[in-house]
Every structure is written in structure tokens, then in C-alpha cells.
Amino acid sequence: MAFFSITLLFATNIMIVKKQICALLLGLSAFSVYAEQAPIQLKSGPSNAGRTYSKVYITSNVDSVIIKRIIVNRGNCKDAEYLPWKPIRLNFGNTYERIFTGKRAGTPCNILEVVVDTNQGSWTFK
């Protein structure tokens, strides 16, 4: 009788743990469905300014977003524009372009990663 009681208790505990694991997995899958989407799209490509230059294109997916800062290749590419950087507001569908070059003179900027800081958070594109 004692053996039967212990077995029943053990089986009940296993069922409870299985239910908790299922609930946890269901919760995690639901989180990924509701993950926040970036308010911008980003594309990059070569610039017509020369072989050492690359261009970043940022397009707004929302009614209004402010681009505060753009970091290319973890700071290994620098802004090549003549005008100093200042935050820019983009409305839905508007695109902003910016040119970057390698940190040292004459070195190209092969864009692999771009971090865009906005008023709606920081977004990394690879």
C-alpha cells in the first residue's frame, strides 16, 4: 500500500511539472508573436561618391519617427557627409540617405551592421 501511495504521488508531481513546462513554452511562443517591430526599414549599398563610400537608406514604417544617431559597423565606419549630423524626423514612407566611409582615409566601408537610435528605441540591422 505504501509503495502504491508513493508511486501515485510521484506520478502526480510529474504531471504538474509537465503542465508547468507546457504553460511556459506556450507563453514564450506567444511572446515571439507579439515581439515589437522596428519603426524603420534599412537598406544599404554602394554610393556614387566613389568606391570607398557606402550609403544607408532609412525608411519610416510609422507615422512619425526621429532618427537620433546612426552607427555603422560598430563605429568602424564614419559619416562622410559635409553637413554635421542632427536628428531628423521621418514620416510614414519617407526615406533618409546618409553616406559613410572607412575610418581611415581611403579605406572602404563594407556595411555589415547598422545601429539606428530613434525616439522609439535602438534598432540593430545586420
Describe the structure in your own words.
- There is one protein chain.
- By secondary structure, this protein is α+β, with helices and mostly antiparallel strands.
- 25% of the residues lie in helices and 39% in strands.
- It is built from one helix and eight strands.
- It starts with a helix and ends with a strand.
Keywords:
single chain; 126 residues; alpha+beta; 4-stranded antiparallel β-sheet
Structural class: alpha+beta
Major sheet description: 4 strands, antiparallel
Write down the oligomeric state.
single chain
| DSSP helix fraction | 25-40%
For the terminal residues, how far apart are their CA atoms?
Answer: 63 Å
> Number of DSSP helices?
1
The global form is globular
Strand content: 35-45%
Give the C-alpha Rg. Answer: 25 Å
In round numbers, the mean pLDDT is: 82
Number of strands: 8
Spatial ordering of strands, largest sheet: 1-2-6-4
Q: What is the fold's blueprint, element by element?
A:
Layout: H1 2-33, E1 40-46, E2 53-60, E3 64-72, E4 77-79, E5 88-91, E6 95-102, E7 114-118, E8 121-125
Antiparallel strand pairs: 1-2, 2-6, 3-5, 3-7, 4-6, 7-8
Give a quick summary of the entry:
By secondary structure, the chain is an alpha+beta fold. It is built from one helix and eight strands; from the N terminus they run αββββββββ. The strands form two sheets. Strands 1-2-6-4 form a four-stranded antiparallel sheet, with no helix packed on it.
